[in-house]
Amino acid sequence: MQRLIRNRQLRIWLIVARAAAAALTLSLAAAINAQVITVQDDAQHAVVLPRPAHRIVSLAPHATELLFAAGAGPYVIGVSDYSDYPPSARQIPSMGSSSALDIERIVALKPDLVVAWGSGNVASQIARLRAIGIPVFESEPRQLETIASSLLRLSQLAGTEQSGAAAAASFKTRLAQLDATYRQRPTVRVFYQIWQKPLMTLNDSHMVSSVITLCGGENVFGKLPQLAPTVSTEAVLQANPEVIFAADGGAASNTGWRRFPQLAAVAANNLFALTPNWMSRPGPRILDGAAELCQKLDLARSRRKP
User: What is the reported pTM?
Assistant: First the structure.
C-alpha cells in the first residue's frame, strides 16, 4: 500500500516537474524572442538583429550623422571618408570612400550592423557584406519625414530608443514650424546647381526638391526623369529661373551666370551660395539648410518688381 502511495506521489511529482520545465522553456523562448529586433530599411528590406547593435559601421557621412543623432554614436566603430559631423566622428577609423570601401577592413571589425547608402555605395560590395552574414540597413531618405523615421528605426537597432524618439520629435517640430511659415508664400522658380562642368541639377525625387517645395519654391527641372540630370545652359536660359543656388558652397555668381543678364535670377541678383553639407546630406542638419534656403527665397521675393 505504501509503495502504491509512493509511486502515485512520484508520478505527480514528475508531472509537475515536466510542466515546470515546459513553462521555463516557454519563458526562456519568449525572453529570447523579446530581444529580437526587426525594422524595415529604406530599400524595404527587413533588418533583423538578435540584440541591440553595439558594433556599427556607417558607410556614408549622412548615415554617420543619423546614427549620432539617434544616440548610437558611442557604438559606431567605423565610418566612410568625409564623416566629419559631429566632430567626434572624425576620430573614428575610415573604411574608405562611399564608392570604394575596404571590405576586408570592415569584416575585421566584426560589426553587428552596417548602415549603407542605397544609391551611394557599390551594390556588389553591399551584397558581399550581406553574403558574409552581416546585417545591413540601407539608408536612402528621399522625403524629409523619412529622416525622423530613420532616427527612430536606427535607435531601435542600437537600443537607444529614448534618444532616437527625442531627436525624431525635435525634427518633426522644427519641420512643422518651417512648413507653417513658408509653404504658403508666393512661388519662386529655382534652378539648383550641384555641378558646373557638366552642368547638373536634381529632380523632384531628391530630398532637395522637398526642401525647395517646403520653402515655397518650384524646381524648374523637377520633372526630369533622372535623379541628378545633366542640363544645358540653353535649357536653363529657357527655364528662366528667378533664383539660382550653387549647392557646393561656391557663389552662384562665380559660375558664369552673370554673362546672361537676361536671366531673371541675374537681373534681380538672386545668385546664392548655400552652406556645404547641410543640403547634400539627408540628416538632421538638412533643416538648417532648409532655413537658409527659405530665407534666401524670401529675399528673392522682396526683390520682385511690383
Answer: 0.84
| Contacts by residues 92-100 (CB-CB < 8 Å, ≥ 24 positions apart) | 95/57, 95/59, 98/59, 98/60, 98/61
Which residues, 6 or more positions from 175, have their beta carbon under 8 angstroms from its beta carbon?
Answer: 144, 145, 148, 214, 287
Sign of the torsion formed by the C-alpha atoms of 40, 91, 174 and 301: negative
Distance CA 184, CA 176 (A): 13
Q: Which amino acid is at 262?
A: Q
CB-based contacts of 63, cutoff 8 Å, min separation 6: 115, 116, 117, 139
Q: What is the pLDDT of residues 6-60, one digit of tens each?
A: 555 555 444 444 544 444 444 434 444 457 999 999 999 999 999 999 999 999 9
Owner of C-alpha cell 577592413? 105
Query: Residue 2 is placed in which grid cell?
Result: 505504501
Tell the residue number behind the cell numbers 550592423, with chain if given: 113
Cis ω on the peptide bond leading into residue 186 (within 30° of 0)? no
Identify the three-state secondary structure at position 80: coil
- Give burial (CB, 10 Å; 0-12/13-18/19+) of 198: exposed
Query: How much is the average pLDDT of 244-253?
Result: 70
Rounded Cα–Cα distance for residues 88 and 73 (Å): 9
Q: In terms of Cα–Cα distance, which of 207, 206, 212 is closest to 226?
A: 206
Give the pairing of strands 56-58 and 113-117: parallel
